[in-house]
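(Structure overview)
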Amino acid sequence: MIELKVVTPRGVYTDLDCQSVHLKSSEGEFTILSHHMPIITDVVPCRLVVKTDGGDTLEYAMSTGFMQFADDKMLILADAIEGKGEIDLERAQAAYKRARERLEKKDSHTNMKRAELSLQRAINRIHVGS
């Protein structure tokens, strides 16, 4: 069993026991199970999938952050996270549209890296929320 705690700038988002956690880092996607070797990695915008101790599957749209796992305890520090049922699809689609417009504009005042990250987050939220 894994003790999972997700913390955002607003405080503890969730604290629960689970069987597995699936997420994505800059190195690729992976699933952590009990007794996994210790690991610290970045987290990129992704679908966070948690299999609970009761066998339920919980899905979240996660922004960037960091994950630490050791001794069957996982700590995820996330910039933002939303449960599947919390996602406002209209808002996510509007964010997607704004990000696409910024990227297509390509003027010298547009922070392209920031626009690309906004687009990734919007796509992830739409994907998880649908």
Remarks:
- The beta strands are 2-8, 11-25, 28-33, 39-43, 46-52, 57-62, 65-70, 73-78, 81-83.
- Residues 5 and 15 are 4 Å apart (CA to CA).
- The two ends are 29 Å apart (CA to CA).
